Each structure stands twice: as structure tokens, then as C-alpha cells.
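Lab notebook, bench 4. The sequencing result for the construct came back, and we need a structural model before the next group meeting so we can plan mutations. Quick request posted to the team channel:

Model the 3D structure of this chain.
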Amino acid sequence: MPAIAANDTDAEAQAVLASLERFGVLSRELVGRESEPVPEGWFDKVMRDVTRELRAGRDIPLSAPDERVEMVITEGAIRELVREAGDAVPGVLVGRTTVSGDIEQLGGAVSVRVTISVLFGRRLAEASAAVRHAVSTALGAHTTLRVTQVDVVVDNVHTAEKSEGER
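Done. Here's the predicted structure in C-alpha cell form:
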């Protein structure tokens, strides 16, 4: 506080703020549980992953309307796009995302790997398929990458936050 106006138009700052908001929701849920304590070093690991994923990384070419113009999107923006697409699937929280392949070539073939946590009671295969579809659709709409596969790994199951008054 106070708000910094430049952050409102900075894509990298917005990605960091969105990740921190998701992290805050998950942290509050974990702290509110009456289960085992959070393992030592958990917070540091999460913050390392957030920092790693939000680095700008390599430039990925986009189609330009004119040959005299070069348009790119950063690797960090791609990871955030994947994360937002996955997080939009009900009952899913995206963990780590990686994009590999011919990422620096216009129309290059890439594969995407996404780790997710799924809400307890949700069918894992349905959640994975929904994430796979959301990620492929988002990348197809916003990039010139040719996505050859989207691997979704369920590495955790979480419970919903308890509603007020529930024990």
C-alpha cells in the first residue's frame, strides 16, 4: 500500500500478484485445517516455484501483421496463461507448469506438463481432461505454438474450505 499505478499495466507484476493471491487462499485453507502441521520448508519451496515460474524467460515469437514488426510473448507469460487456464477448471489448483520443445520457433511444436491438485470427490480423469482441454484452448488462442501434448499430473488432492460454523 498504496497501490502502484505502473503495476496495473505490467503483465509480469499482474502475474506475480495473481499467483500470490492463489497462494494466500491455499495457505489460509491449510492453516485453518485441524490436520497435521505444514511441513518445514513448504513455504520456501512454494515461493521458489513462484519465483522460477514468473521469470520472463525466453521470448516466444507471435505472428506479426507486418514483416517489419517482431512480436513476442515471454515464457513466463505462457506459464501464467497455462496456470490461469488450469485454475479456471472447477475444483483444480495448478502447481508447477513446464513448457518444452521448439518454443523459440514460430509455430514450433511444444509439450506442456502441468501438475494439479484436485478437490476431493472430483473424478481425477475428468478434472485432468478438463485441464488438458483448457490449456490447449488457451495456448491455441493466444500463441502460435503447436501443442503436441499436454501432460497433466495429479500430485495432490485437497478439500474445500470449511464454511462458517462448520467444524
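The chain has four helices and five strands.
Will bring this to the meeting.
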